[in-house]
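tool_call: predict_structure(chain=1)
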Amino acid sequence: MRRGSFQAGTVDYAAVGATQAPDLMGYPPKGTTPAEASWRLGSGESRFVTSTEQLLGWGAQRGAGLRVEDVRPASGPMYSGVGFDADGNAVQPSRLDDEQRFDADGTPFVGAGTTAHVHGRVGGMRADAELRVISLIDEPRRVGFSLGTVGGSVVSGEESFLLEWRDDDEVWFTVRAFDKPTGVLYRLWHPLVKRRRRALFQGYLQAMSPMYATGS
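tool_result:
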């Protein structure tokens, strides 16, 4: 597995990249709660391209009601990201590592090693955190990235977001995650972790699904 050299301020958990493990749901990192959900977004190349632009522009997070602020692309040798193929094997750096893009407001798109702060509430629960992009997938029919917590969150862990344009022409969006409570209330009442996760997943679906976007 290709990894950069971790320095101060990197992710606050040990199992970096574990959202890519095929057996995540059965064997999550010790002490964490895993979650996974997939949704069909439509079909065809146009839907895949549109969804890709939305995802890499922080659309899932913003559409879920979170503010994405202080987005800082990686600089120097601090951390260059981890790439994976469909089987969870490490791959060479994506071309996205070298192509910095910006949205209409000037916010940098997702890039390996990028850090960002998210703020807001989902389902009435706090969703503030500092996050780092710890992996990118950039293939002709698969695009996605993983986010790891750096600090400031009530949970510690990782999320991965993947778009697939499958051989049957359908476009699917999959989110996988594992986390453990760090906030006092969440440590005392573990069901809050799953409740928070369900609310986040619902927000991501509403953000990425054309059905929600058009109100149909």
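agent: The longest strand covers residues 170-181. Proceeding to next step.
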